[in-house]
Amino acid sequence: MSDIEADYFTFTVLLHLATLVAVLIVYRKDIFPLIPAFFRMLGKAFHGKFKLKDYDEKERMVLFLLIATLPLVAAVFLNDSVEALASYTKIVGGILIFNGVVLFLSDRISKGTRELDDMKPKNALAVGLCQLCAILPGLSRSGSTITGARLCGFSREFAVKFSFILSIPAILGANVFKIPDMLSNPVPASDIASYACGMAAAAVTGVIAMKLLVYISKKTDFKIFSFYCVIVGLLAVIFG
C-alpha cells in the first residue's frame, strides 16, 4: 500500500468513526441505557430465559439490534464482488434510482404506526436483510433499513431511530478489523490538524443530517429523499 493509499485508508476509517460519534450524540438517551440492558439480557439468557416476555423494553431493543446485525456476516464474503461494481457509474446510478423508487413507494404503501412493543424477531431480521442489501454501491444503508422497517408496518419515527442505532454495530463491524492496519500507518504530525477538522466536520454534519431526518419523519414523508436519489441516479446514468 502506497503512502497516499494508506493515508486515504486511515482518513476514511476516522471519518466513519466520526459519524458513529454523531449517532451517539443524537441518540445518547436511547443508546447508553442499552449497555446495562445488554448484560441483563445475557444474564437472563444464561438462566434459560429466552422468551420476549422475559425481557424489558431495553433488553428487547438489544436483542432486535443483534438479530438485525446478523445478516451482515454475509457481507464479509460478498465485499470483494460488491466493490467491483463501484467502478461502474451507470450501475451505481441505476441502484440509486431503485433506492429512490423503493423509498417513495414504501412510504406510500405503509401507513404503519407500530413501535418497539410490536416488534418481532422476524421484523428485525427483515430490516437486517435490507441493511445487507445496502452493501451495494448507491444503495443507502439508512434508506434501506428505514424502508424495511416501514414495510414491516413501523412508524417513520421508530424506523429512523432503529435505523441509526443499528448503524453502530454496522460501523464498528466494518471498521474494527481495519484499526490494526490504521495503527500501522499513524497519522503524520503535520496532518493531525486537517484530519481532526475532517472528523469534526463529519460529526457535525452527521448530527445536523440526523436531526433533520428526525424532524422530517415527524412532520412529513420521505419523498424529498426519494426524489434526490432518483435525480442523482439519472445524472449518473446519463453522464456516467
Account of the protein in words:
- The chain has one domain.
- Helices cover 75% and strands 0% of the residues.
- The chain contains twelve helices and no strands.
- Helix 1 packs antiparallel against helix 9 and helix 3 crosses helix 4.
- The longest helix is centred in the C-terminal third of the chain and has 28 residues.
- The radius of gyration is 19 Å and the shape is globular.
- The two termini are 28 Å apart.
Write the layout of secondary structure elements.
Blueprint: H1 3-26, H2 28-31, H3 34-46, H4 57-69, H5 75-85, H6 89-109, H7 121-133, H8 141-151, H9 156-175, H10 179-183, H11 192-219, H12 223-239
Helix pairs in contact: 1-9, 1-11, 3-4, 4-7, 4-9, 6-8, 6-12, 7-8, 8-9, 9-11
Brief account:
By secondary structure, the chain is mainly α. It has helices at 3-26, 28-31, 34-46, 57-69, 75-85, 89-109, 121-133, 141-151, 156-175, 179-183, 192-219, 223-239. It has 12 helices and no strands.
